[in-house]
Amino acid sequence: MEEILRFAKISFSYDKERIALNDLSVSLYTSEKVAVLGNNGAGKSTFFLCCNGIVKPKSGEIYFKKNKFQWTRKENILLRQAVGLIFQDPDNQIIAGTVEAEISFGPMNLKLDENTVRKQVDDAITNMQLEEMRLRAPHYLSGGEKKRVSIADVLAMNPQLLLLDEPGASLDPANTSLLEKNLDMLTEKGLGLVIATHDVDFAWRWADRILVFHRGEVVADADPETVFSNSSLLNRCGLAQPILYQVGKIFNMNPLPRVIADVRKMSELPRSNK
Questions:
Q1: Are residues 156 and 252 in the same domain?
Q2: Does residue 248 share a domain with residue 231?
Q3: Whether residue 159 is found in the same domain as residue 262
Q4: Same domain, yes or no, for 215 and 268?
Q5: What is the C-alpha separation between 203 and 36, in angstroms, rounded?
Q6: Both 163 and 267 in a single domain?
Q7: pLDDT in tens for each of the 274 residues of the chain?
Q8: Residue 129 sits in the same domain as residue 249
Q9: Contact criterion met (CB below 8 Å) for 86 and 167
């Protein structure tokens, strides 16, 4: 894994009454799956905006690929190319008349040569399984398809880190499952994924690492089992234990099941030993 971002004692407030980030220190890497949990107002969205260079902290330092970030126009361009931000509502991101034109917009603005643009666009379309929609109007696609287009938008910039705000919001189970498979393929190819979510069941089954935000601070940075076994932390932050975590604890399963298939496999073990 390669360190892409490191926050060192970052603080930010929108006004005197609202402290969004408070003395926050955390690092983000390639090839990892990070879930960001916390109630509304905990600081997750502001954290993402700082990661992408949209919001400049009031104090503290950001290190981009181990170098102190200087907030120049050139460095902002490099940061936003390496760290892609995908908003919750894809309609806020989609502007072009066809899927292909939409996904081409970012790399063309980077003034890359035509062959490079074509390759990066084709790769993004393939990774998000959008081949059959290449020439369709994105505004007429389903919610799940639009979400994949918005992710392909950023993938075409060839980033190393993707930040996604509630990517599963408003998606049906089939589209949610497809999206998770697409995202897993990206981490297998070396991308780091950081997903803000309120869905503790998703965080439990998907993440390698969980950041818990509370009142502008990261109050936990650990693997899922460590986070969800900490009852006092969960109570303080208003978080519940995932259903499968609870099932595993009730039936003393070891290891604890992450997905339904794990429960089925474990339930069959005694029968196979008879």
A1: no
A2: no
A3: no
A4: no
A5: 8
A6: no
A7: 899 999 999 999 988 778 899 999 999 999 999 999 999 999 999 999 999 999 999 999 999 999 999 999 999 999 999 999 998 888 888 899 999 999 999 899 888 889 999 999 999 999 999 999 999 999 999 988 999 999 999 999 999 999 999 988 878 888 888 889 989 999 999 999 999 999 999 999 999 999 999 999 999 999 999 999 999 999 999 999 999 999 999 999 989 999 888 887 776 655 444 4
A8: no
A9: yes
Give the whole-angstrom CA distance, residue 94 versus residue 16: 35
248 and 151 within one domain = no
Same domain, 252 and 232: no
3-state secondary structure the chain: CCEEEEEEEEEEEEECCEEEEEEEEEEEECCCEEEEECCCCCCHHHHHHHHCCCCCCCEEEEEECCEECCCCHHHHHHHHHHEEEECCCHHHCCCCCCHHHHHHHHHHHCCCCHHHHHHHHHHHHHHCCCHHHCCCCHHHCCHHHHHHHHHHHHHCCCCCEEEEECCCCCCCHHHHHHHHHHHHHHHHCCCEEEEECCCHHHHHHHCCEEEEEECCEEEEEECHHHHHCCHHHHHHHCCCCCHHHHHHHHCCCCCCCCCHHHHHHHHHHHHHCC
Range of the domain at 35: 3-241
